[in-house]
Specification:
- By secondary structure, this protein is of the alpha+beta class.
- It folds into 3 domains: about 5-85, no CATH class; about 95-270, Phosphorylase Kinase, domain 1 (2-Layer Sandwich); about 275-380, Transferase(Phosphotransferase), domain 1.
- Helices cover about 30% and strands about 20% of the residues.
- The chain contains 10 helices and 15 strands.
- The chain has helices spanning about 35-40, 75-85, 100-105, 130-140, 180-185, 190-195, 220-245, 285-300, 340-355, 365-375, and strands spanning about 15-20, 25-30, 50-55, 65-70, 145-155, 160-165, 175-180, 200, 205-210, 255, 260-265, 265-270, 270, 315-320, 320-325.
- A 5-stranded antiparallel beta sheet has the order 5-6-7-11-10, with helices on both faces. It has a 4-stranded antiparallel beta sheet with strand order 1-4-3-2, with no helix packed on it.
- Helix 9 packs across helix 10.
Amino acid sequence: MPFGAIPGPFSRLGDLRYAQHPYLKGTSYATETKSSATESKSRLLPKGAITLERFFEDDSEEEPITFEKIKPGARERARTRSQAQAKPTRKTSYESSADVQRWLHEQSYDTQQHSPDFHPTLLASRRDAPWILSSLEPFYKQQLITDVLHEAHSGKEATVYCCEAHPSTGMEYLAAKVYRPRMFRSLRNDAIYRFSRVQRDEQGQAEHGNSRRGSAATRKTEKGRAAQIASWIDYEYQTQRLLYAHGANVPRPFAQIGNAVLMEYIGSVGDPAPRLSDIALEKEEAQPLFDCIMRNVELALVHGRIHGDLSEYNVLYWQGAVTLIDFAQAVDPYHNSDVFSLFARDIERICQYFARYDVQCNAHELAREIWTWQMGPIPELI
């Protein structure tokens, strides 16, 4: 029977724990050591231990069962720990952490208007709802959007949402690009990008990325990382504004607050414009689209921008036209002449894509020709 049911002097051994099997059979009793063999075993037992011997008619050599005292309350504490570990915990996203939310609050604009609470249709059951809500609510309070309808595109660094536009914008729908904070935990080796654009210090003053003063945006401090994040997103927004103002085929930008950029939506509700990488072009439209992209590449260079990550994955196709997107890694050739390699890589990737449609071009020669015509001698040849 179980040990707890044994009558007699052992019924109060509730504070003893088993050293061997917890069930006892037969007649048992406490004993002092009775032989030299038993004495040698007893010397190996912990201080204060009690041995119980069993006697069976068919087995007189069975090993004794050993117990040792434990501290009072240990069993209750162990039970409490076990219950605490078994209790399920609800997963929380990194986006809802206090640090991230504090950064969003610091980046958002204060508004004196009192609008109804923002309750987007899309976010009813999403785990990252707090992050998306915090990112897009400022646009709602600025009367730029009225609802979030669906997810349009998703990548490693950001997610784009189709939003219902406020009537004051004159648009039916807008696209909200929301950067994930995971992107900023460990940005890729971005030295060439930082050294080729204007950075902002903790007071918002402009300074070049290769400044020797040690700007906040390049230091590994909390304020430095916050400045780097703000500078990175703001630069993409300003690049898009610059290119749109000069007639480039880019989405019209509307606003940038915190970690989100609001822009023109390309496509229809439930059917966002696909990337070039996701479609097959008609052969006769390949050459005109290639020429259009090259004009945009040259136009951007003239106005001090190189995309820096251009490929078929960053070009949208809708109703026979192309739109260049994702300028997060854009650089300024006037701040760093060593970016010709990025410029040549952008052209090479586009040429490789259109080669499948028999568009003939020498990427290296084309890059050298455009650069020399607009910027002068290639840096590596100076």
